[in-house]
What we know:
The chain is of the alpha/beta class. The chain has an eight-stranded mixed β-sheet with strand order 3-2-1-4-5-6-7-8, with helices on both faces. The longest helix has 23 residues. The chain binds nicotinamide-adenine-dinucleotide. Nicotinamide-adenine-dinucleotide binds next to helix 1 and helix 4.
Amino acid sequence: MAENLAVLGAGSWGMAVADLLAANGHRVTLWEFERNDCENLVRLRGRPDKLKDFTLSPEVRITNDLAEATSGFSLIVLAVPSQTMRSVLRQIRKLSPDTGLVNLAKGIETVTLKRMSDVIREELDIAPDRLATVSGPSHAEEVIRGLPTAVVAAGSSEEFTGRLQHVFSNGYFRVYQSCDLVGVELGGSLKNIIAIGAGIAEGLGLGDNTLGAILTRGLAEITRLGLAMGALPETFAGLSGIGDLVTTCVSKHSRNRFVGERIGLGEHLDGVLSRMTQVAEGVQTTRSGHELARRYGVEMPITAQVHQVLFEDKPPAVAVGELMERRLKTEIWK
Ligand SMILES: NC(=O)c1ccc[n+]([C@@H]2O[C@H](COP(=O)([O-])OP(=O)(O)OC[C@H]3O[C@@H](n4cnc5c(N)ncnc54)[C@H](O)[C@@H]3O)[C@@H](O)[C@H]2O)c1
């Protein structure tokens, strides 16, 4: 059934998802907060600085008015970066009680260490059975080309996540269901830290053995924190666990891997970020993940080293050396 949908945030992912939803026959309105960017998007039907060779479907309405983009919709899809999510939500006036909310952001708020669904519930009066997160290995650059992609919709209501499966799925975009909101949100966020680590290894000229080690030991530490925070272990073997982790750590489209690679090549974080036109969520998530590990008393050695390289000027090669020389232990963790 065709729905009336709003997508908030016209970055790479917001545009790709708005286009996908319009292709699925829904009526879609896309909100961009910055007036000039919005005017350019209306004129060009794309943002070449964010997504090359992409033209937004003529069916998608574009607006700069948040009140207009948040009233009268059956579903509101949130595609703004995680550190700006709360400020956007605070500008939304009361929603009608039957509106559903779908989070697409992959990150953990640095100030509060809250996951996105917690931030949404704090800021909006929304019942848990109308809230979900859609996450998984889904680079916008590939979704706009119609390359087969699978993601997961996680939430407490099977009925709501089932509805989202039908709203989002088509011949190249397949949506699975999950009841593990905690695990799906943590997997989608924490993998960006490991992707920065994988990029650092690439920049240092290390090999495939190193990448395999970072991926598996990265998954081990993500899972350890996830279990301490109440996630289901099997979620980390799923699309928002190993699926997103592998894609992000090896993909040329990954901005987090790119940040790591430049740092491994000897650049400074500020210089790398100043040249980027898109958000690299993993940088701030490194702060959140590192602090969560401390609070929950969970060992996250790769996260700790990435934190020191990004924020404490530790030379990347020294970080690798310290990871290799840690106390020897069993592989399977408890
Ligand atoms: N790009 C992808 O392939 C992809 C895939 C899955 C999930 N995500 C997640 O989606 C989120 C958005 O990523 P993106 O790639 O679209 O980022 P982006 O950098 O391309 O765009 C971010 C957009 O967010 C909006 N925005 C930024 N600051 C804002 C503010 N202060 N107030 C309101 N809106 C603001 C703007 O529309 C901006 O264009 C991130 O959490 C990312 O991890 C991205």
